[in-house]
Structures are given as C-alpha cells and as structure tokens.
Amino acid sequence: MKKRILFVDDEPNIIQGLKRALRCRKNEWEMFFADSGQKALELLAENQVDVIVTDMCMPGMDGVKLLTEVMKHYPRTARIILSGNLYKEMHVFSSKTAHKSLSKPCDTEKLIKSIEQVLENKEGLFDNSF
To answer: Angle at Cα 56 formed by Cα 89 and Cα 69, nearest 5°?
Structure first.
C-alpha cells in the first residue's frame, strides 16, 4: 500500500519543484499538495495521511499553527518542517510540534531519506508523547 504524504507551501514554485523532484516516488507514495494551512486541513479531513511536510512561514495559518492542529486532530500523522525560516524562536516552537526539521533549500535525496526514515520509525515516534 502506498504511503500518503502531504506537502504544504504557499509558494507555487516550491510546490511545482517538489512535484517534479519527487516524481521518482510516485509508485511508493501517494502525494497531496496544498498551498495553505487551511487547504491542508481540508485535505487531512478527507484523506488519511502518513506524513505532513510543511513550510513554517505562510500567510493566514503558519506552520506552527498547522502542526498544532495536526497534532490535536491527526496525532498519528508524522510531522516534518521544510522551511527557509528556522530561526531560533521558531525552532523552539517547531521542535514541540514536529518530528523532524529541514532547512530550505533541501537536497531532494535528503528530503526523500528524511521522509523514509520517519515512515520507517513512525510507530516509535508515537510511543513517546511530546
């Protein structure tokens, strides 16, 4: 069964780049893409997702608010931050809501490896509460 991954970023170029870069995983992953936190929550309400990968700085609902909602309503969904804005204060908040944080720009292989590691260790992630 394919793993389901949701990518969230308000920049259309980032979304398009992710779609192109991750085509090689289309046989293993069913991928969803959202351009806002609100659209991500709508997708989550309709689809069971294994991993969410989100930017932090987005208009409306930022990544911390989104991941807080995901923690509350979809606690078995692994959470990864992919952001160019992992400054010190944001890192403190993000470390409480995410299982892994990656900085943009991120090499495609590093992103794939990080998602695969989270998927492999997913059950262990939820043995310890945040």
So the answer is: 100
Query: pTM surpassing 0.85?
Result: yes
Closest CA relative to residue 71, chosen from 98, 40, 33, 103: 98
**pLDDT, mean of residues 57-72:** 91
CA end-to-end span of the chain, whole Å?
Answer: 28
Rg, the chain, Cα only: 13
Which position has the higher pLDDT, 83 or 31?
31
Contact partners, residue 47, CB within 8 Å, separation at least 6: 4, 6, 32
Mean pLDDT (whole number) for 69-90: 81
pLDDT in the model for residue 93? 52
Residue 127 scores a pLDDT above 70: no
| Backbone angle region of 54, left / alpha / beta, with phi > 0 → left and psi within -120 to 50 → alpha | beta
Residue 129 lies in a domain: no
61 within some domain? yes
Number of independent structural domains in the chain:
1
Interhelix angle 88-97/63-73, nearest 10 degrees: 10
Domain that includes residue 22, residue range? 3-123
